[in-house]
Amino acid sequence: MFSLSIRQKIPLLIVLPILLAVGLTVFFSYRNGQKAVNKLATQGNLKSTQAISAHLQSYLESPYRLLLFNQSLIESGQLNPNNGDQLRQFAYELVPKEAATFFYGQPTGEFMGIESHLDQPMAYWLRPPGPSQDNPTTEIYTLDTQGNPQTLQDTIFYDPRQRPWYQKAVELEEFTWSQIYVFAQTNDLGMGAAFPYYNPPGQLQGVFLIDVTLSEISEFLAGLSISPHGEAFIIEPDGQIVASSFDVDTFVKKEGETVRINGVESENSLLREISQVLLDQYGKNIDEIEGIQQFTVTIEGVRQYVGFVPFKDGRGIEWYVVVAIPNTDFQYIVNATIRSALIVGSIVAIFGIILGLIVARSIVQPIESLNHAANAIENHTFEANLLARLVQRQDEIGQLGQVFQNMGRVIMASHTNLKEQMSALEDEMAKANRHKNNGQYDWGKIETVLARSRQLRQQNDSEKQLPNLLRKLAYFAHLSEDELQNLINLGEKRVIPQNTYIYRANEPGDTFYIILEGSAEMYVDPMHKLLKHLSAGDSFGEFSLLLGIPRTATVRTSSETVLFVVDQVILQQCLQKFPNMADTLAQELYNHQDELTSRKDLLKETGLLEDEESFDQNPLTWIRGRLNTMFTLS
User: Whole-angstrom Cα distance, residue 202 to residue 161?
Assistant: First the structure.
């Protein structure tokens, strides 16, 4: 399995989080920028559609108000619709100020009107009574500055009774809008507001018409400040173009007839694609749409934020008001955010990486020094000057270096002493060999030398195997490396002479032992019944130490014995430093319920078991409480 050295891991652990942080910052900057663009586009669509709807409401309200005003003048007797001169003069004064046209058609076929489009002179339309309905002739005159007819410009066939606006107003008997059509003289799109007039008996007297040009709406859309490249247009539910901010044709000539262009057939790709999506998704269901609707569509590689609202004036008009804003109009926000994040992130990353590498080096170098020192100790080549610079530091690493230096000195001194002892043994063996060669055998001395040699080897091996010996004990098998090493560091070695009592039955059990070398016997007083032979690697006394109960047997050395000893004070220090260690010991005591039950009478005799029912129901809780009490744990 691929692994990295600590020299490689620490810089990576420092550098990678910095790079990850910079990357995440740029990523979230991009996402937040996109959210800002979406929000701005949504607000732009909302404000623009509201502004267009308000303008339409005002623009289309004007003809209705004029016709109501006209109606009130007639009803008050200030205007006589049958007086052609008076009606012409009224229209002459009204048209330049408020409207593009003013027409009045009667049931008898009579017709009069004044129109003015853009920079063209005002024209007076007149169809006096008398012409046959089969040949309705309408005359068009120029007007002087007083509004009087002057020169006959043209004669056309025009009967108002055959026009859709007239027929629709008569049918509904109320104000209505005509369908959109193309003006004959200006080639502009327009529509008329028609209002039927009835006398008090309820007889139809005629229909008034005021035309509005849709090119003025297109001019308003083109001048509307949506966004740098935002566009707006208005279509009918069937897709017919009403007005737009684009410079595109809204009608064409086909076989001599004027035909309006549908949005899905427009030469402008933006208008065409958006109209197609709108009609596919919403179609003619304008009555089911409330408030602004929004969607996005990609056209020629540019994402468009589209918002539209249904517009209804309550008098027959039903349109879709559409606004499209390209995301490129706000992309500078995202780009600026990402650019700022990259610049700041790069600066922070560079300084962070440099600082991190310096810190990593300051950590790795002392660790490498300690590693070299540990190898030197293992190879018995340790010298104090290996850590001379490290121990001068005033931080925790300097303290660790001091511990390594002291440990190295002790181990090297022990190794030197052991070598001297082994050398002395070798000298004695050499002397014994010489005596042997001379035919003189001192078997007692030879046995003594061999025993001493075995003792030294056994002691050395036992000390090296002490962690493994502790691991073999069930009570310490699950301790962590730190907990186990702390226990070893606090424990002590004792040398007990031959035939010496280590402890007797019924004595306080405040110490635990492991035999490093030598041997001992465990037996029961006073019968002196042998229970167990103890040798190097064996342990005893841990159960009494953990529960604080008296000894149940006697232990005496059968030869000179070296012990590793842990008493109550040492164990208390370990438990207070490693609180989890108490739970581990409690669990292991609980696992030895047979042995625990066998001590039940002893616990009652010593007054340690006052609540036997609680002990039987939940012995683990009792053990934990006992350990907390004995070792004054929190």
Answer: 19
